[in-house]
Write a structure and sequence with these properties.
The protein is α+β, with helices and mostly antiparallel strands. The chain contains four helices and eleven strands. The chain is globular, with a radius of gyration of 27 Å.
């Protein structure tokens, strides 16, 4: 029998302790590897409907520090992946919605006597805003090119005498915000937020002035050529709106994110991005913190993209960062929309059940 010396029990304890520590460390590494290798939510083989493009999501800086005041300050945001219509909603698509639902747009309804008590019944007849060029060489009054035209609506974009013959693939216009929301509910989708829209419009090119780079190219979008509002040379081939998809797509496969028609977003408008919350997928969902100083007391939504009426000498908001305000109850001959949807997981219908939109009205 060889009894242990006084120091040997201590050595044995230390060896056992090191052994247990090593085993614990190996177990911890194994758990970490399992966590890292665990798959995230699986995507369906086709995460978006065929009519939509997959927007990969990521981080970017919304707005533009060196442009217009309403685009400042720039904010660093993160956007989750989502689906977005490749094109603006066309007249044919909107007609299918109306045929299926019986929906009546805002422009097809008489003005409210409660909202416009000073107007005679004949003056409250249905109508909407229509652009008309202004001629002459003298001074031109601001906004004198817009006229309230009775009988103007989505079926008659320029008023009585105009129609949709041969225009089925042009973007639907004369749609108010609630009309776009009603269509979204019918489709089971939603209007994009401003942050989503701008991220998608950039097409993967962060901090560029335009959707394709830093140099303006009038042949990449449907805009106004010539001195606005008197003479459009139609150098790009169109005096008014063009059929959707007529110009080159951006890096995400989206058409007409620049020009053609302005597009509704969910966000309420304020000068600058101050009301936009930090974090992922932000949206200005409360009208209380917003406003347009040019029209005090009227809450408006953000519209994006510019239109066929934007020119270098007026508007020039054909940039991803550019934004404008529009009253939700007013359509016009140069405002349309497109829809967004979540990416699909296995077993789900691509692009379905994005949000709960207000019920159909009309």
């Amino acid at each position: 029998m060889n009894p242990l010396s006084p120091i040997e029990p201590l050595a044995v304890d230390r060896i056992g302790c090191r052994h247990r520590t090593l085993l614990f460390a190996l177990w911890a590494v194994a758990q970490l590897l399992l966590l890292l290798l665990q798959p995230g939510p699986a995507l369906a083989a086709e995460p978006c409907p065929a009519s939509m493009a997959l927007i990969p999501g990521g981080s970017y800086r919304i707005g533009a520090a060196a442009q217009l005041p309403e685009e400042q300050p720039g904010r660093n945001l993160r956007i989750s992946p989502f689906c977005l219509d490749r094109t603006e909603v066309s007249n044919d698509r909107f007609a299918a919605f109306v045929a299926a639902s019986g929906y009546i747009t805002v422009a097809e309804r008489p003005l409210s006597a409660e909202q416009f008590p000073a107007l005679e019944a004949s003056e409250r007849a249905p109508g909407s805003l229509v652009f008309q060029p202004v001629g002459g060489s003298g001074p031109i009054e601001e906004l004198s090119w817009w006229h309230w035209v009775q009988g103007a609506d989505w079926r008659h974009p320029e008023g009585p005498g105009s129609d949709l013959a041969g225009r089925g693939q042009q973007p639907v216009v004369q749609v108010a915000y609630e009309d776009a929301e009603a269509f979204a509910r019918w489709a089971g989708q939603a209007l994009p937020s401003e942050a989503q829209w701008e991220f998608a419009a950039r097409g993967g090119l962060n901090d560029r002035i335009f959707a394709w780079g830093n140099s303006w190219n009038p042949h990449r979008a449907n805009t106004w050529q010539g001195p606005f509002p008197s003479s459009n040379t139609a150098e790009d081939g169109y005096l008014g709106s063009a059929p959707v998809g007529s110009f080159p797509a951006n890096g995400y496969g989206l058409f007409d994110m620049t020009g053609n028609v302005w597009e509704w977003t969910q966000d309420w408008y304020a000068v600058g991005h101050g009301p936009l919350a930090d974090g992922d997928d932000p949206i200005v969902s409360s009208a209380a913190a917003t406003g347009d100083p040019r029209d005090p007391g009227v809450a408006k939504h953000v519209i994006k993209g510019g239109s066929f009426l934007c020119s270098p000498n007026y508007c020039s908001r054909y940039r991803p960062a550019a934004r404008e305000a529009q009253s939700p109850d007013t359509g016009s001959s140069h405002i349309g929309f497109r829809l967004a949807a979540p990416i699909a997981t296995p077993g789900a219908t691509p692009g379905a059940a994005f949000t709960t939109a207000p019920p159909l009205r009309g």
